[in-house]
Amino acid sequence: MKRRIVFRDPGQRCLVSLVLIGVKLSPALNAQSTLSLQEAVDQALRSRQSLQAEEERIGVAKGLQRQAELRPNPEFLFQNENLRPGQTYGRDVDTVAYITQPLDFLGKRKQRIAVAQEGVARTQAEVDLARIQIVELVKLAYWAARGAEENRTLLKSTLENFQKIVDYHSAQLSTGAIAEQDFLRVQLESDRLKVSAKFADIEASRARAALMQAMGQTTISGALLTEPLDASVPIEPLAIDQILAERSELKVARAAVEEAEAKARLQMVAARPDLSVFAGYKRTQLPDTRTGVNTAIAGIQVGLPWMNKNQGNRDAADAEVRRQRQMLAAAEASVRAEYLGALQEYQMRWAQFAETLKPLRDAAVNLSQIAAAAYAAGGTDLLRLLDAERARIDAELLLAQRSVEYRQSLARLEAAEGMNR
């Protein structure tokens, strides 16, 4: 059998309606621009000057690669011989002119190109890492701002409806229907809500400014954040081998190892001798005559790696290869630990959201409705009504905060996976 509650007067019926509206009310959406999570990320990737600066490094690396591919320029030499005081230049002075062309038959140019190519690959991996870090930063800031605005909206709507309750009790006080003490309690609760609402407004403004900064915006937009805070279905974890293949930090570390190995090979071939060929012309003035002899000059010039065999640079390059390999091993260990930690946090927050927070909020809402109906029917006192309302508000705020933390844990998990789902 259902219990029927009889209200003592129309004012009490109004009071119950206001409380129930305060529980179920959702703010009406004004005609304003909206901002989804993906739109925030896209704007950040377009606007962040730090990312644009990182992308310019790719042009730098490609310029160095192009320079490494160029062949050395020839050298021109012009000289005079037998210059003495009192001579006639056209009759007594010998003239020599020839061109020297450095050759690269021993693999030095090939290894320089290989080093430059590895530099391009490493730079590209570092830019990709910077892009992923910005995406993670924007996601965390977006959910923080979304949660702060949820708190502000909840407290604002609760305060607006609670003010009607204050007005109702004020009218009751003026007619002598309630004690002044009860009205003061309602007024005190209203003041507490005003303080909380003001603090929530400050926190929402601060979180919105942090989001705009993460997006690379110079002005604070008033666009409505549209992503829902409610958790979606739980996601399935990825295999650790797939994560190790996708993480940008490991791509950077692997590229650094390959670049160090290419530099070590370059230092090995740098110990080989330099080879140049030259050819030219020489005019030799014959003694005691007004005529000269024109002759050709040709030869080969070879460096002799006798004392300097590039030993120091080779040792340094080998040590750098070993260092980069150790850095790669350390990065793999760090990625494993970070992913397992992010996965555990996500799973715990999902379980907390689904198993505890939502039932807690639903119970608090139900308790508030029961307390409101009982107070209107004269079955309970004002303190119990206020306690029930306070419990409902606290449960709503707790659910919003933990929803933000759940969404942020998902963003950290996606970053730990090295990809976006």
What CATH calls the topology of the largest domain is Outer membrane efflux proteins (OEP)
Count of folded domains: 2
Strand content: 5-15%
Distance between the termini: 51 Å
Please report the total strand number as a whole number.
Answer: 6
Specify the overall morphology.
elongated
Query: How many helical stretches?
Result: 10
Helix share, percent: 55-70%
Provide an overview of this structure.
This protein has about 425 residues and is an alpha+beta fold. The protein folds into 2 domains: about 10-30 and about 45-70 and about 105-270 and about 310-415, Outer membrane efflux proteins (OEP) (Up-down Bundle), CATH 1.20.1600; about 70-105 and about 270-310. About 70% of the residues lie in helices and about 10% in strands. It contains 10 helices and 6 strands. The strands form 2 sheets. Strands 2-3-5-6 form a 4-stranded antiparallel sheet, with no helix packed on it. A hairpin with a 6-residue loop joins strand 5 (about 275-285) and strand 6 (about 290-300). The radius of gyration is 39 Å and the shape is elongated.
